[in-house]
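Justification of computing resources. Each target in the renewal requires a structure prediction run like the one illustrated here; the chain below, 288 residues long, is used simply to show the kind of job we budget for.
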Amino acid sequence: MRELDNILAAINMSALDDEVIKRAMLIAKEANAQLHFIHAIDIPVMDIEITSEFLEQKIDKDAIKKEIIHKLDALNGYEDIEYIVNITIGDAAQQVMHIAEKFQADLIIIGSHSKAKIEEYYLGSTAQKIAQKSGLPILVIKNSVQGAYKNILAPTDFSNSSKKSVLFAKIAFKSSPITLVFAYKDLDDLTIEYYKLDSDENEKKTEFLGRPHADIFKQEVGIKKLDMIKSSPSIDKTLLEYSKTKESDLIVLGSAGSDIAGSFLGSTAAYLLRNTLSDILIYIPLNK
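Resulting structure tokens:
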């Protein structure tokens, strides 16, 4: 099982920087983890090639670092939270992944977009790239921080990767309640014919078939609350609407690998990542 010893939070002077900082400090405090911040200076090259050496000479990294530390100190509400600030030059996603590897980060925290308004909840290109390629758990911040998460929702398919995602969430958010949810579809016509079910029995049988897995899963992750909901018309939309109804402030998504778009309940992870208003934790199991 993953531990949570090192946290890397990416800040880029965006509308969500303050929220990323506050959430990172809150988690570091609760998990007693070392906290790193990275600000990647991502300058697009237009008509001429700008070398890293040239940028190093022209950009005052010390001044930028001083400004960031001033902001961090102003937002730090914990006397015992210390942090390391890294200023880099280059592609933001690549730099975040490089620093994460260098300091053996166990969790990366990023804002959902870079220079958009805080009301825009769709995932930015940098965040998308990091989530897809880092191979690390990613916490995507979409909202203002109102203390510890109060209503975490963890959709599950009872898989091993889903179990690991829930266990990691319990480590990262020790004081927050977690509700499991399993969305199921109706049985197909062949199964209905085999069991000789009428319409009422069909729904009962569908839910019944998931119960043994649910009971085992709840015991393995140590969570008693699990809701089983019928999906209509699709699991994606059902889970999205369910999370809105429950007013979830964080959704935990397990992934079978680093390709988010092709894992966990088909395209469900990618759909929720793009469309939910809640913060998102994407858990990617260790490859080794």
